[in-house]
Amino acid sequence: MKKLAIPALLSLILAACSSTGTSTDTAAKVEDRSGGAGVATVTADGASGSGIAALTDPNNILSKRSVFFDFDSYVIKSEAKPLVEAHARFLVQNPQIKMLIQGNTDERGSREYNLALGQKRADVVKQALLLLGAKETQIESVSLGEEKPRCDAATEACFAENRRGDMLYSGEF
C-alpha cells in the first residue's frame, strides 16, 4: 500500500506546485486535433501520459496482464485478486483508457464449449473490474476460446498456461 501512496502523494505535490498562468495575454493557444475521441492509447515505448509507463514496467504489477483459471472454471483465484485490483485502480485513475479482456481456454472440449467458457472468463474479470470502480464504457470482453494458445504442448502445465483472461489496453489490440 505504501508503494502506491508515495507516487500518489508525489503527484499531488507536483500538481499543487504547477503554475496555472493567470495572464491570458501571453498564453499560447493550442488547437485540439484529437478528433474528440478522448481515448488514450498505449504505445510500444509506454509513453502516452498519466502513468502509462507503469503498464510496461516489468517491476510493476500492471505489466502482468493475465488472470489464470482452473480447469473447467471461471472463478478468479485468490492469488489473482491483487492483480485485478491494481488494474481496476489504474482504470479508475485513467477514465480515458479502454481495455479489452480476451477469454482463453485450453484445447480440451468442443469449439462451442470453449468459446462459451472463454466468454465467461472474460466476463468475470470484467465484472470484478466494474465492482472495483472501473466504468462499463472502458471495458469490452470477448472470447477467443482455444484459438490463441500460449503453449502448444499437450501437457497439464501447458493447458494451465492457456486457461486465462488477458487484459489488453488501447493500442495493444
Automatic annotation (TrEMBL):
GO terms for cellular component: cell outer membrane. Residues 56-173 form the OmpA-like domain. It is a lipid-anchor. InterPro entries: Bact_OuterMem_StrucFunc (IPR050330), OMP_bac (IPR006664), OmpA-like (IPR006665), OmpA-like_sf (IPR036737), Pal (IPR039001), Pal_lipo_C (IPR014169). It is found in: Cell outer membrane. Keywords: Cell cycle, Cell division, Cell outer membrane, Lipoprotein, Membrane, Palmitate, Signal. It comes from the Bacteria. Part of the Tol-Pal system, which plays a role in outer membrane invagination during cell division and is important for maintaining outer membrane integrity. This is Peptidoglycan-associated lipoprotein. It comes from Thauera linaloolentis (strain DSM 12138 / JCM 21573 / CCUG 41526 / CIP 105981 / IAM 15112 / NBRC 102519 / 47Lol). The lineage of its organism: Bacteria, Pseudomonadati, Pseudomonadota, Betaproteobacteria, Rhodocyclales.
